[in-house]
Amino acid sequence: MNVENFGGNGFPSRIALALATLALFFVSTHALSVGAQEPSVPLATVTRSPEAGAERTDAALAEADLLWSRRSDGATGVQAIPGPVDALIAACRQIISHEPASLEARWRLMRALYFKGEYTTEDPTQKKNIFDAGRVVGDEALAIVRRVAPLAKPRPNATPVDLAPVVKGQRAVIACFYWAAVDWGKWALAFGKSAAVKQGAAAKIRDYAAAVIALDPSFEEGGGYRVLGRLHHQTPSVPFFTGWASREEAMKNLRLANRAGSRNFFNRLYLAEAMWDYEKTKRPESRAMLESLTADTPSAEFPVEDRKTQAEAKALLASWTAR
Fold first, then answer.
1. Which residue, 298, 305, 202, is CA-closest to 246?
2. Average pLDDT value for the chain
3. Average of pLDDT values for 137-162?
4. Which of 158, 185, 222, 279 could cross-link 27 (Cys pair, CB 3.0–4.6 Å)?
5. Cβ-contact 254, 298 below 8 angstroms
6. What 3-state class would DSSP assign to 263?
7. Alpha-carbon span 147 to 203, nearest angstrom
8. How far apart are CA 100 and CA 143, in angstroms?
C-alpha cells in the first residue's frame, strides 16, 4: 500500500493510514476474553413463529439457498451479473417481512449483499448503497441476539464477544457475526476513513471476528481467523485508535486460517501478502504461494470469487516484480 496516498509525515498521517486501511480485508486484541460461562439456549426457539409459519420459512430458506447456488449464472471472468443475486436478496427480504426476527434470513441477506457489492459493480455509489444495506442488516441481527440472549444481566450494548458464551452452537448467530464483519469491512472501504472512525468500524470488525473464533474456529474455512489476521495486517498500530493492531497477531491468525482452509484462495492470498511484508527472508516462499494460486483451478462453488482472487494475486506478483 502506498502511504503517500494518505497525507504527510508524522502522527496525523499514521492516524489517517490506520483509518483508511481498516477495511482492506475480507475481515482482537492480544487476548480477548469471552467472559464468564452462562447457559446457552437455542435462539431459534425465540426468533421464529410457530409451526405453520416455521414450515413456510424453512421452505423459503431452502429456495434462498438454491438461489445462492445460482448467483454466478451468466458471469464472465471476475464480474457477475446482478440479476441472480438480486433475486436472492428479494427472497431474503421477503422472509424477513414475514419473520422479522429471522437470523437465518439475515445472514443469507448479508452474504448476498456482500456478493452483489463486491462482484457485480465497480460503481462507488452503488457499492456505498449495497454495503450500507449490509451494515444495517448486521446491526439488526446483533440487536436481535442482544434482545434474546440469556445473559445473567441484560446488556443492551453487549458486544459479540460478550454474547459468545451464551450462543454456543447457534450456527445462525455465528454466520451473522461473520458476515457482519465482512460487510462492515466493505462498508468502511466504500465510505472512507472519516466515516469509519466515527462508526468505530475497526473495533466492531475485531469483535465480530473474535466471537466467530470463540464459537467455531473452522467456520467458513477459518473465516474468523482470516478476518482478524487481515485486520491486524492492514491496520497500523496507532495509540488511542488502533493500538491493539499487531503484526504478530496478523501472522498468527492468517496461519491459523490457512491451517483451517489450506485450499481457500483468500487464505492463501492474505498469508502470502503478509509474509512478504513481515518476513522478508520468506519472500521466495510468498512468491511461490501466489504463483501456485494463480495456476490453480477455481472451485465450482466459488468461480467468480476465486477468479477475482487470482486476478488480485497476479497484480500483487507484478508489483513485487517491479520493486
1. 202
2. 86
3. 93
4. 185
5. no
6. coil
7. 21
8. 12
* Cβ-Cβ contacts under 8 Å for 180 (sequence gap 6 or more): 110, 134, 135, 137, 138, 139, 141, 142, 204, 208
3-state secondary structure of 69: helix
Q: In the numeric block, which cell numbers belong to residue 178?
A: 461473520
pLDDT digits over 25-37, tens only?
443 333 333 333 3
pLDDT band at residue 54 using 50, 70 and 90 as cut-offs: confident
Q: What is the pTM of this model?
A: 0.85
Residue 159 has pLDDT above 50, yes or no: yes
Alpha-carbon span 225 to 254, nearest angstrom: 6
Phi, psi (rounded to 5 degrees) for 102: -75, 115
> What does the angle CA 89 – CA 175 – CA 121 come to, to the nearest 5 degrees?
40
Which residue is listed with cell 502470502?
272
Sign, CA torsion 102/108/111/116: negative
- The owner of cell 466504500 is 190
191-201: pLDDT as tens digits: 987 888 889 89
* Residue 48, pLDDT score: 55
Q: How far apart are CA 224 and CA 184, in angstroms?
A: 14
Q: At CA 118, angle to CA 173 and CA 267, rounded to 5?
A: 65
d(CA 236, CA 48): 42
Q: Which of 241, 260, 38, 240 is nearest to 158 (CA)?
A: 38
3-state secondary structure of 18: helix
Per-residue cell: 232: 491486524
